[in-house]
User: What shape does this take?
Amino acid sequence: MATIKFSKTKKVSKGDLLLSVGDTTLYAYKVESGCLRSYVIDNAGKEHILQFAPEDWIIGDMGSYTNGDPSTIFIDALEESEVSFISAADFRDFHSLEKELLVEMSIKLRNNVIAANKRIISLLSATAEERYISFTQTYPTLVQRLPLKLIASYIGITPEYLSDLRRKMAKK
Amino acid sequence: MATIKFSKTKKVSKGDLLLSVGDTTLYAYKVESGCLRSYVIDNAGKEHILQFAPEDWIIGDMGSYTNGDPSTIFIDALEESEVSFISAADFRDFHSLEKELLVEMSIKLRNNVIAANKRIISLLSATAEERYISFTQTYPTLVQRLPLKLIASYIGITPEYLSDLRRKMAKK
DNA sequence: GCCATTTCTTAAGCTATCTTAATTTTTCTT
DNA sequence: AAGAAAAATTAAGATAGCTTAAGAAATGGC
Assistant: This one.
């Protein structure tokens, strides 16, 4: 099967910032090993995690790639990682992609839509505890690998409250 | 420009249910006029609106179309509407689509990803008042057309609280 | 192996948002 | 236009989840 053509890989260290809000040189990243995340910082200075990207995931700011605007998100490395690059143009001009690549891209986009919708439903209708349980079931390996405060940020609660929840859940 | 091939249109009345949870006969809908919505019902019996689909939007349960599972959402008409149908197969087997159609589909999927991510960030980081203001700016026509309680459901708050917010905002 | 840094825990008080319920207003039906 | 149904408002009391702050535990660098 044809596959999206990526640059050769590059090693990045834990904490390295690969994309900042305002950046105009835009790439998406495919994670070969390790784990990246994308996040935003709100008016109150708080971080909110949009996506974790462990091995084999693609991460980037689709909105910016599409319309050419500066990035609205940050991307950094949560672990030592190896990544390859995909140019923004591949998201902007679907016509220029070969059909095979376009099919592959469509599948990734479709999966992204499905995952995003699930998360929206979860944020709209589930309690913090339910969202945490659901996270542990959906991403069991990430629960092991990532610090609690990042998981709290992803499910939309404070680390203190997640710590509380864990204790209450353990008591049952 | 080529366009995804839809069936001829059909009129539906306000309140008509086009898709139910558990349905296995699956179509997505393109709205020619009027407005549809998709929603889920949680354990406590409460509705949560996933999407509004006014003129020219496509609405459906991508997850089910993809893997052939029964629908996980409801879709109904919020107004007298005219819709055309698109078969689930078109989401499932991208290979069989002509390239032009695939490009069009990819663009719709990409826009869907962008919109979904915006909504996730909003749910994670904005207060109810901020989400309401943002909704009125993003969908000014829907604010006119739809009852308050549906907007409340979409932004993830109760109608009573949205009513409160409106009053407080008016006082300023 | 030690010190610094980061992460996690705990707890008390606080606030945004919800629940319930009753009333009013608007919209729909005939 | 009247009556019924749906939507919106208001208000009081409840609660999930937040804030702050301080201490404990774990991790990482040298």
User: Anything to note?
Assistant: The mean pLDDT of chain B is 91. The first strand of chain B starts at residue 10 and ends at 12.
